Amino acid sequence: MSQLPRAEEKIRAALLVKSNPINLTIVDDPGWAHSAALTYADAYDKICRGDDVPRQHSLQCFDIAARIEYLDTS
């Protein structure tokens, strides 16, 4: 179990990373979003529904649910 630093200890960053700027282009593609949401919903229904979901699927189920949540398909 890790210990919290004492008040007099200075907290330092573990790693400093520098990167070049990244340019992103965000495209509104409702057709793709709807298709992706259906695919993720199908995967969720297959492995994440029911009372006996295997423990090893819990992280995968969380990931699928997060992807569904962030697809703007309303």
Number of helices: 2
Number of extended strands: 0
Which regions contain 5 or more consecutive residues with pLDDT less than 50? none
Mean pLDDT: 82
Question: If you had to describe this structure to a student in words, what would you say it looks like?
Answer:
This protein is mostly helical and 74 residues long. The chain has a domain at 30-70. The chain has helices spanning 30-47, 58-70. α1 packs antiparallel against α2. The longest helix is centred in the middle third of the chain and has 18 residues, at 30-47. The chain is flat and about 50 Å long. The N and C termini lie far apart (44 Å). The model has no long low-confidence stretch (mean pLDDT 82).
Observed structural traits:
74 residues; mainly alpha; flat; 0% strand
Task: Give me the secondary-structure topology.
Layout: H1 30-47, H2 58-70
Helix pairs in contact: 1-2
Question: Would you kindly provide a brief summary of this structure?
Answer:
By secondary structure, the protein is an all-alpha fold.
